[in-house]
Amino acid sequence: MIKRTIFTELKKHLNKKEITFIVGARQAGKTTLMTLLQDFLEKQGEKFVSLNLDIERDKQFFASQETLIKKIELEIGKSKGYVFLDEIQRKENAGLFLKGIYDMNLPYKFIVSGSGSLELKEKIHESLAGRKIMFELGTLSFNEFANFRTNYQYENNLSDFFALDKIQTEQLLKEYLDCGGYPKVVLDDQLPEKKKTIEEIYRAYLERDISYLLGVQKTEVFTNLVKIIASQIGELVNFTELSSTLRISAKTIKNYLWYLEKTFILKRVNPFFRNIRKEISKAPVYYFSDLGLRNYALDEFGSAVSFQNVGFLFENFVYKLIQEQMQGTSAKINFWRTTDKAEVDFVLNFGKEILPIEAKYSHLKKPILTRSLRSFIEKYKPQRVFIVNLSLNQKVKINGAEVNFTPFYLLKI
What are the structural domains of the chain? Predict the structure, then answer.
């Protein structure tokens, strides 16, 4: 069993009245988390009922609110209990359906999960305002992956292990960059098995989720768009150019990219400007939520680190590290580009404070700043700067800024 960091937060939320909502990509481990929560409640002697909208027999109980309540009462009675509803995105108007039940003030705590869809990301937010807390489950973080791979031997001092055993740390990083963090992929022992599993996840996403959401069976253009974005992670997206290449309108391109965001495949990053209008109007960049899926799209799964674009993979990896730490905060993750081609990979915008971060897939020997980063420091006067690399751990002062050369495993924002 792979331990998930979010499990502790979910257990704490079991005592809250609001609906516990677990959302995330297909096969990220939502159902497994639901099962673990049920095991926990069973040990506490609590009553619960579990229903899954992907199971044909369970669908009948969602015909109406009255039918579902009768089913719950039949299983756990009319006193305190827990209700688990899995794959709720299969229910039409799920937000209004759950809102009606929640407002009846029944003695039940609802724990609900679903893959990304319009229903979950849009209408549920509106319908259940003030009635739910959303927990987004991604694929395994690097720390979750490394803990599992080392049999949890260094669970309480993982950063010490990374700093001491540099060879195994780099091997773990390369495997993570190559194969990503889908739990089923990580659990497979051999590369051929991993490839088969990631293919099944990829195909299920295209043939089930996207066909359902777009209302089409042929997804060749959509697939080609995924491949193009996979080949240029961290690079500016030119919608006109994509439109010409794929022979579909720029509006459709933007629509498809929006679906890829809503289904937890891509993460959009907008440029940093003091002028918000410029920020909205300029081209974004995209990163993948899971590198294994990105590599599979380009037929590089299991060997991506051997390609010349490993620096962009590491940049995507650093984006994930930043995102994990910024989840639940109001901080915005941006990037910086200028017309004279100066650039900074990431700029964290906390409102009053900004924090530039560069990703370098290199064993830096000494603290050297790029001209672009120096230019950013001179213009915006940040208090702190991070250059995330493979091994160098050193601080220097430049133009009043504390510049932290930090190994990826020590990054603490």
Answer: 6-137 (3.40.50.300)
